[in-house]
Structure formats: C-alpha cells, structure tokens
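Figure 2 data, in text form.
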Amino acid sequence: MELSDETTITVTRGELMLLTAGLTAYLTAFARHRDEDGGASHPEEEWVELQRRTGELIWRLEEAGAPPGSHIIHSAEAVEPGRP
C-alpha cells in the first residue's frame, strides 16, 4: 500500500467540520513555529508545499460537507486541487 493510494472513510458532516478546523489550526501552529525561528527549521519551499497540500485537503473536505447543489464559499486556507 502506497501513501498515494486512495481510501474511503465515512464521517458525519460534524466530523468534516472538526477535521477542517484541525487542519486550519495545524497551518496556524506551523506558521507560528516558522515565525519563532525565522524559518530556520522549515524552508519557504516546504511551507509553501505544506500550505498547498493541506489547503487542497481542506477544499475537498469543504466540498464533501456541502449539501448537494449548494454554492460553496471556501475558507481562506482552502486551495483548489490542481491549481499551481
């Protein structure tokens, strides 16, 4: 089994919200950590990639939790998958 292999889980909409909030808090904590050491522990390229990958997951979670046919306004941390 590879890390890139897809998997399926079932969660409630409430759990989707918790996961999204947790990922957002993770990005905030990571940014604070980088600020504290001036980026010495994590170079800019790593930070940008982490924001992209985490943002894409946030986007997907927001899409999954929205009622069918609704207009979704994504959070500031969300990144549309596949965008450079």
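Caption note: Residues 5 and 70 are 29 Å apart (CA to CA).
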